[in-house]
Amino acid sequence: MNNSLPTHSNPFDIFVTGARKGFHIAINNLMPNVIMAYVIAEILNLLGVMQFIGHLCAPLMGLFGLPGEAITVLLTSWLSSSAGTGVAASLLATGKLDATQITILIPAIFLMGSQLQYMGRLLGVADVPKKYWPLLMLVSLGNAIISMLVMRLCA
Length: 155
What we know:
Elements: H1 11-47, H2 49-62, H3 71-79, H4 81-93, H5 99-112, H6 115-123, H7 133-154
Helix pairs in contact: 1-4, 3-4, 3-5, 4-5, 5-7
């Protein structure tokens, strides 16, 4: 018998149990990543690293209608979607990104997000031959690039 599910079928009780589990996941798994990314973005900003990255990546990110600093959202998204979201929130709070630019980035965050985690957690467990891993990563990156171009045209 599965102890994680309620033994009764009252829809309200089932909903409450699911909401509690969702809250637990949000507080213990997602929020630490978002806060960590937000803090790292602030530290990079205070140290001047964000401005350097912004200047260096401005031509590339300009293709998508984004400032150079937006590359940090994509790089952190590659590690964790929630971390990418945290960096995007930080850049929005500091005025480096606006609502339109966030809209351009959102699909890319989730199309390429958490690839580093997925390599070990999914591809390794599923016994996908390692020779296909780079192709799978490139497809996700290609999808993210296409999404940013489409979103720029629609924004």
